[in-house]
Amino acid sequence: MTLVRFAPSPTGRLHVGNIRTALVNWLFARQQGGRFLLRLDDTDTERSTAEFARGIEEDLRWLGLGWDLFDRQSDRMSRYSEAAERLKASGRLYPCFETPEELSLKRKAQINAGKPPVYDRAALGLSDAEKTALAKSTVPHWRFLLEPGRIEWEDRVRGHVHFEAANLSDPVLFRADGRPIYTLATVVDDIDLGVTDVIRGEDHVANTAIQIQLFRALGAAVPRFGHTTLIADAAGEGLSKRIGSLSIANLREDGIEPMTINSLLAHLGTSDAVEPYLSLDDLVRHFDLGHFGRATPKFDPEELPRLNHRLIQKLSFVGVRDRLPAGADERFWLAVRPNLARVSEAAEWWPVIHGPLRPEIADPAFAEAAAALLPPEPWDETSWGVWTKAVGSATKRKGKELYLPLRLALTGRAHGPELKSLLVLIGRARSLARLLGKEA
Ligand code: GLU
Question: Is residue 436 classed exposed, middle or buried when 0-12, 13-18 and 19+ CB atoms within 10 A define those classes?
């Protein structure tokens, strides 16, 4: 059975980039009838916090991206040590004693000589006596011995991918302080939990080459991989700090609906049009990992309120009722909905209908004439047309000259929802008072 995972490090809140990875994995799992694992990559004990971990869970829940399985790397340290022992026994993990300064000098020398900065494996040539001597003053870190040859895989997004092992450095799997590095922890976890598909950003492509060898060295089947291109900003640059750090928490505070975010991110970088979908089930039906392309998708934060507006046009009164001002009914919702980029903006229109409101009147004589022509109630959506036609012929005004002063008198603003809907809700008594310049 398909098992995918989303593996954030709890070192910050989720943002647009990593939410896309979570969503793509979640949709893929649902589509395959598989399961979705949330794994916290929290081996970096200095930067990981319980609060960020809680924040990640809260953000995922708010987006509707629940998980079937949960794990955290800090609970699995003994498994990483066991894997280390196995790799040592098979000669694939070897101790190294270079200091960071030495390594950096070596790298510089290689680059100056026009060579790729690949670790020279000097530590492999140390005799047992040399290692014992070095170990007296230095605690070693441990590297994984890559096998020579071509590493290749069929990527679900990128197609055929290959690397020459000789161009890669033997990766460090354990720091001198004994902490496992992500590369080892992630492979051990993926094996233990039976992850079948690893879908993540293209910044992990080179890691994948290494991880494929590590899966094999640990005697495990290699999962299938898919690497989506990273999102860029509207100008095509990598996500700037401002946009990259656009957290889900910020967007939520800004009144963006979770399904707006999901709808945009599920199709950003695909050949599919971005449509506002009301539910994740709809999105599952319209999702295809094979539609993700190689071009860098552009993310324009301005698109979110626009898409949110389109999504809101599909929201029924029942779906938003508890977020509207007390007393709001379906007529109110339908009247103001076309004007909203955010559901919370509905509240701004409540006093426009129920008062008190200070009307804006530039020409009292015109407003009085219009007041005298208000038709008797009951009103419906045709009343506005009947009334303004009468006002137009009596005052010889038309277009903006006719409508704008009426809007300003009735709503106190120059823009807003259609007056044919608002007028019915404002009602005759309040309309009359406002046209006569009274606060109502
Ligand atoms: N913690 C890693 C990251 O956030 C996970 C990468 C992976 O999916 O293996 O980049």
Answer: middle
| Rg, the chain, Cα only | 31
CA gap 389, 405 in Å, rounded: 15
Res 236: pLDDT: 77
Q: How far is CA 289 from the centre of its chain?
A: 16
User: Helices H, strands E: what count in the chain?
Assistant: 20, 12
Q: Cα(220)–Cα(86) distance, rounded to whole angstroms?
A: 13
**Atom number in ligand 1 closest to CA 190:** 9
State the pLDDT at residue 243.
63
Contacts of the segment 182-185: beta carbons below 8 A, 24+ positions apart: 182/41, 182/43, 183/144, 183/207, 183/210, 183/211, 183/214, 184/80, 184/83, 184/84, 184/144, 184/214, 185/41, 185/43, 185/73, 185/76, 185/80
Q: Are 424 and 353 in contact (CB under 8 A)?
A: no
* 71 DSSP β-pair partners: 39
3-state helix, strand, coil in the chain (%, to 5): 50, 15, 35
What rounded mean pLDDT belongs to the chain? 95
Token pair belonging to 232 = 């860029």
Query: Which CATH number does the domain 330-435 belong to among 3.50.50.60, 3.30.870.10, 1.10.10.350, 2.30.22.10?
Result: 1.10.10.350
What residue's CA is closest to ligand 1, atom 5?
Answer: 7
Residue 200 beta carbon below 6 angstroms from any ligand 1 atom: yes
**Strand 35-40 relative to strand 141-144, pairing:** unpaired
Spacing, Cα 198 to ligand 1 middle (Å): 10
| Domain ranges for the chain | 330-435
pTM exceeding 0.70: yes
The tens digit of pLDDT for each residue in 124-152 reads 999 999 999 999 999 999 999 999 999 99
Report residues of the chain scoring pLDDT below 70.
240-245
Q: Which residues pair with 172 in a beta bridge?
A: 143
Residue 364 near residue 371 (C-beta atoms within 8 A): no
Which pLDDT belongs to residue 232? 87
Q: Is the dihedral of CA 83, 85, 91, 97 positive or negative?
A: positive
How far apart CA 229 and CA 296 sit, in angstroms, is 6
Decide: 24 in ligand 1 pocket, CB within 6 A: no
Distance of CA 7 to the CA centre of its chain: 14
Residue with tokens 């290749």: 152
> Which residue, by CA, sits nearest to atom 10 of ligand 1?
8
Give the per-residue pLDDT at 242.
Answer: 63
